[in-house]
């Protein structure tokens, strides 16, 4: 069975077997990552949580590959502070249970100076979880640790704690460290979200180095701030295809990250900026998100945006992606696709939707959404064919939605509602 299948089935036995016995370090590392991602399903009813933590601790201490050890430590981090502290106590001999948080932070800060890099990694992760600011200066010093895996976790901890005084120490590392450390530092600056942190990200978003620009636009998507929108919209014109696509992903991410108080402002700003952008550079990445992304929030926002920016040359391309999304497993995503399609009338959309409604091999949920859109955009042709359809369909759900569409098209006076 593949790792993907084991993850999909939450097969802890199979994943732990790969983690313990595979001769391939890449498979062991990926097994640790998957186990971390399944933390919420590791319960006594599904699989003993303690058994997973025990094995991750063993791997974090003893695996011969440093990347596997690092992945196991990150997985322990996902299993919570208790799991991390068990590992730290196991490897250091320090007893840190039943200690006040501020005192615990001081003990963990000592671990940042330990000889073992695994202990320094775990100490940084633990400090990020505790969130005490009394050890910020120790973390700032540790950003120069000789081990890049430690530097990554130190940057992550600084972002979690929210220590704005760390910006001057983090900023130079954006230019001089290795790629994966730079990414963590950029994310930390985005998490800090101060004016100085934002300025650093905006500066490197305009850097000559393509890698730096991509890192910056990736991190800016985490801000949830209207201040990042213009920078990301400008990045849609970047000479690098990779930077352009990352910028679009970040704009979509912004819609998810924006606080409720600023959500409407961020949405309006993004729509305004994308309306002025090159349509190919805006529409194609959004349709790619709908076709390939497995992130629900990304797909919802991409579906919502497409109806508000696609026009003229790329309207049919957007319709194609949205029509397929009518059958999405996530109900909200399919609803957003339907409402966006209702804004993209033209180019034979009425005929295409009627074909879906009348195709008995299509998913019923998709046909319901198609009827909803036809109720918004349909004309005499739609009214006549839907009227014939409701007379012959054996599905109560489709019949009801058909009557709802007809009522909006002036065909009947009864039944109302939108989605089934």
From TrEMBL:
**Superkingdom, taxonomy of origin:** Archaea
State the UniProt keywords alphabetically.
Lyase
Q: Which Pfam families match?
A: HEAT_2, HEAT_PBS
Quote the InterPro entries the UniProt record gives: ARM-like, ARM-type_fold, PBS_lyase_HEAT
GO molecular function terms attached to this record: lyase activity; oxidoreductase activity
Database matches in SMART domains? EZ_HEAT
Query: Known PANTHER family for this protein?
Result: DEOXYHYPUSINE HYDROXYLASE, PBS LYASE HEAT-LIKE PROTEIN
Name of the protein in question: Phycocyanin alpha phycocyanobilin lyase-like
Recorded source organism is Natrarchaeobaculum sulfurireducens
């Amino acid at each position: 069975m593949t790792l993907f299948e084991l993850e999909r089935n939450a097969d802890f036995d199979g994943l732990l077997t790969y983690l313990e016995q595979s001769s391939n370090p890449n498979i062991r590392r990926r097994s640790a990552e998957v186990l971390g991602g399944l933390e919420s399903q590791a319960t006594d009813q599904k699989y003993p949580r303690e058994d997973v933590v025990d094995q991750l601790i063993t791997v974090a201490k003893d695996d011969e590959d440093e990347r596997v050890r690092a992945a196991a430590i990150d997985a322990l981090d996902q299993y919570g502070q208790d799991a991390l502290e068990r590992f730290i106590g196991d490897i250091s001999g320090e007893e840190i249970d039943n200690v006040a948080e501020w005192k615990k932070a001081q003990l963990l800060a000592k671990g940042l100076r330990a000889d073992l890099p695994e202990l320094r990694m775990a100490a940084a992760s633990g400090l990020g979880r505790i969130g005490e600011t009394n050890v910020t200066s120790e973390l700032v010093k540790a950003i120069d640790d000789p081990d890049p895996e430690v530097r990554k976790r130190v940057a992550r901890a600084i972002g979690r704690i929210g220590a704005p005084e760390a910006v001057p120490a983090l900023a130079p590392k954006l230019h001089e460290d290795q790629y994966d450390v730079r990414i963590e530092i950029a994310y930390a600056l985005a998490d800090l979200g101060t004016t100085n942190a934002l300025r650093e990200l905006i500066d490197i978003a305009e850097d000559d180095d393509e890698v730096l620009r991509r890192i910056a636009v990736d991190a800016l998507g985490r801000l949830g701030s209207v201040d990042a929108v213009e920078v990301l919209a400008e990045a849609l014109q970047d000479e690098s295809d990779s930077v352009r696509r990352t910028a679009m992903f970040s704009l979509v991410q912004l819609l998810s990250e924006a606080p409720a108080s600023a959500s409407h402002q961020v949405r309006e700003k993004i729509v305004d900026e994308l309306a002025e952008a090159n349509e190919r550079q805006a529409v194609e990445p959004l349709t790619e998100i709908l076709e390939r992304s497995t992130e629900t929030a990304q797909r919802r926002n991409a579906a919502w945006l497409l109806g508000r920016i696609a026009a003229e040359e790329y309207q049919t391309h957007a319709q194609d992606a949205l029509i397929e999304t009518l059958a999405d497993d996530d109900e909200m995503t399919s609803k957003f696709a339907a409402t966006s399609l209702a804004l993209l009338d033209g180019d034979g959309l009425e005929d295409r939707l009627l074909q879906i409604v009348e195709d008995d091999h299509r998913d019923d949920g998709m046909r319901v959404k198609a009827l909803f859109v036809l109720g918004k955009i349909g004309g005499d042709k739609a009214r006549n064919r839907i009227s014939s359809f409701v007379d012959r369909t054996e599905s109560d759900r489709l019949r009801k939605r058909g009557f709802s569409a007809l009522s909006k098209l002036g065909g009947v006076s009864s039944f109302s509602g939108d989605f089934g």
